[in-house]
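PROTEIN DESIGN WORKSHEET
SECTION A - STRUCTURE
LENGTH: 392
C-ALPHA CELLS:
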C-alpha cells in the first residue's frame, strides 16, 4: 500500500509554495502562528484571499456547474496545509460549510447570490450554532424563529460565534418548531450581520483569541433566506461538520511546531549538559515522533475515503481527536523540557524559539474544543465505529 498524496497533489503543493513565497506579506502571514486561527479580518487578508480566488484555488472541489473545477477534496486540504504552515488564513467556512450546503440544499436565489461571492472571496461568514445551553448537544438550541408574513422573526442568543465582529453574513441555526423532536425542529438561515436587532459582544478567550456573544432581538429574515427545507437544519449541519473536520485541521503546520521543538533540543543545554543526551528528553521526543507519524496516517485515511466519494466521518473523528491531543502533548513537552523560560512571551529576549510555545500552549486547549470536543469525537468513534451505546 502506498501511503502518499500522489504526484498531482505533490505538484500542486509545489505550486502553492511558490505562490506563497512570491506573495509573502507579514500583514497577512505570521509564521510563528502556523496552524493557529488567522481570520480574514483585515483589508490585507481579504486582498490575499482574492489572490487565491484569481488563481482558481477557492472552491476547487466544487462542481464545474457552480464555478469550481471538480478537483478532489485532497487539493483543498493540501492548499490549507500550506496556508497554515506560513500562518496565513485558511479557506474555510464559505467554501465548506456554507457553499457546499447551499449547493446541495439551497434555493436558486441563494445559489445565485452567494456562490459567486464565495468563489470571488468577496464575502465572510460567521457560524452561529452554539448557545449558552447548546454546544455538544447542539440539537438543544433554543434561539427561536417565529413565522410571520413573508419570513421569520428571530429572537435569542448565540455564544462562541467567532468572526461575528467582522463577518458580512451570519449563518445560523434557529428553532422553527418547538413541538417537534429536538433534532427535527431546527432551520438554517442567512442573515446580514448589519441587520437591525443584532448585537455582537466581545468574548476574549485563551491565547488572546476573540469570539463573541450575539444577541438577536426581533430580527426579520425573508423566507428565501431559509436554507433548504424548514426543520431539516440539523441534518444539514451534521453533513457540513464532516467537511469542516476534514479541511480545518492540518498536519503540516503542527509538524512544524514539533520540528521547532527538536531544533531547540539539538543545541539546548541543562546544567551544562546537552539536553539531547538526557534519557527523559529522548523518551519524550521519540514518543512525539511516533504520535506524529500516526497523525499523518489518520490524515491519509481521511483523504483516501473522501477521494472515494465517501464521507470520512469516523476517520475524521479519529484524526481530529489524535491531532488535537498530540498538539497539546507537543506544546506541553516544550514547556516542561525548556523550563521557566518557555513561559516567556514573544518579544522577550530570553524566550526560547521566539516565545512561540507560550501562546501555542494556550491555543492547543482551544483545538480540543472547536468543531466538537474530544469527548464528542470519542462518542462518534464509540457509537459509529464500535457500535457501543452512547448516552447524550
Ligand atoms: C474559541 C472557540 C471558538 C468557537 N467558535 C464557534 C463558532 O464560530 N460557532 C459556533 O457555533 N460555535 C463555536 N464554538 C463553540 C464550540 O463548538 C463549543 O464550545 C463546543 O462544541 C462545546 O460545546 P459547549 O461549549 O456547549 O460545551 P458542553 O457541550 O457544555 O461541554 C462541556 C464539557 O462536557 C463534555 N461533554 C458534553 N457532552 C458530552 C457527552 N455526551 N459525553 C461526554 N462528554 C460530554 C464536553 O466534551 C466538555 O468537556 C467555539 C468555541 C471556542 C472555545
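SECTION B - SEQUENCE
RESIDUE ASSIGNMENT:
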Amino acid at each position: 500500500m502506498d501511503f502518499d498524496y500522489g504526484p498531482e497533489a505533490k505538484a500542486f503543493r509545489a505550486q502553492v509554495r511558490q505562490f506563497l513565497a512570491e506573495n509573502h506579506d507579514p500583514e497577512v502571514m505570521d509564521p510563528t502562528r502556523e496552524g493557529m486561527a488567522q481570520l480574514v479580518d483585515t483589508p490585507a487578508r481579504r486582498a490575499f484571499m482574492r489572490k487565491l480566488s484569481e488563481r482558481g484555488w477557492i472552491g476547487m472541489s466544487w462542481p464545474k456547474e457552480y464555478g469550481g473545477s471538480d478537483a478532489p477534496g485532497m487539493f483543498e486540504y493540501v492548499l490549507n496545509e500550506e496556508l497554515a504552515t506560513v500562518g496565513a488564513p485558511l479557506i474555510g467556512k464559505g467554501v465548506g460549510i456554507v457553499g457546499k450546503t447551499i449547493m446541495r440544499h439551497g434555493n436558486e436565489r441563494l445559489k445565485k447570490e452567494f456562490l459567486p461571492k464565495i468563489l470571488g472571496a468577496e464575502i465572510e461568514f460567521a457560524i452561529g450554532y452554539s448557545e449558552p445551553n447548546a454546544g455538544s448537544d447542539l440539537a438543544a438550541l433554543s434561539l427561536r424563529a417565529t413565522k410571520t408574513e413573508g419570513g421569520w422573526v428571530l429572537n435569542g442568543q448565540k455564544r462562541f460565534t467567532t468572526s461575528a465582529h467582522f463577518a458580512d453574513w451570519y449563518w445560523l441555526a434557529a428553532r422553527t418548531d418547538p413541538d417537534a423532536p429536538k433534532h427535527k425542529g431546527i432551520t438554517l438561515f442567512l442573515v446580514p450581520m448589519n441587520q437591525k436587532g443584532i448585537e455582537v459582544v466581545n468574548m476574549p478567550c485563551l491565547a488572546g483569541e476573540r469570539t463573541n456573544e450575539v444577541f438577536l432581538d426581533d430580527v426579520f429574515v425573508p423566507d428565501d433566506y431559509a436554507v433548504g427545507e424548514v426543520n431539516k437544519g440539523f441534518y444539514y449541519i451534521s453533513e457540513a461538520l464532516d467537511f469542516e473536520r476534514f479541511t480545518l485541521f492540518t498536519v503540516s503546520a503542527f509538524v512544524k511546531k514539533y520540528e521547532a521543538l527538536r531544533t531547540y533540543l539539538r543545541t539546548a543545554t541543562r546544567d551544562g549538559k546537552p539536553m539531547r543526551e538526557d534519557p527523559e528528553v529522548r523518551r519524550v521526543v521519540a514518543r512525539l515522533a511516533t504520535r506524529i507519524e500516526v497523525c499523518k496516517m489518520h490524515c491519509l485515511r481521511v483523504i483516501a475515503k473522501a477521494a472515494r466519494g465517501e464521507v470520512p466521518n469516523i476517520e475524521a473523528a479519529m484524526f481530529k481527536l489524535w491531532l488535537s491531543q498530540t498538539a497539546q502533548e507537543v506544546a506541553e513537552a516544550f514547556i516542561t523540557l525548556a523550563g521557566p523560560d518557555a513561559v516567556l512571551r514573544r518579544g522577550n529576549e530570553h524566550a526560547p524559539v521566539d516565545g512561540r510555545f507560550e501562546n501555542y500552549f494556550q491555543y492547543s486547549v482551544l483545538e480540543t474544543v472547536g468543531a466538537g470536543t474530544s469527548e464528542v469525537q470519542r462518542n462518534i468513534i464509540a457509537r459509529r465505529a464500535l457500535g457501543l451505546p452512547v448516552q447524550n
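SECTION C - NOTES
Residues 7-91 form a domain with the Butyryl-Coa Dehydrogenase, subunit A; domain 1 fold (CATH 1.10.540.10).
The radius of gyration is 22 Å.
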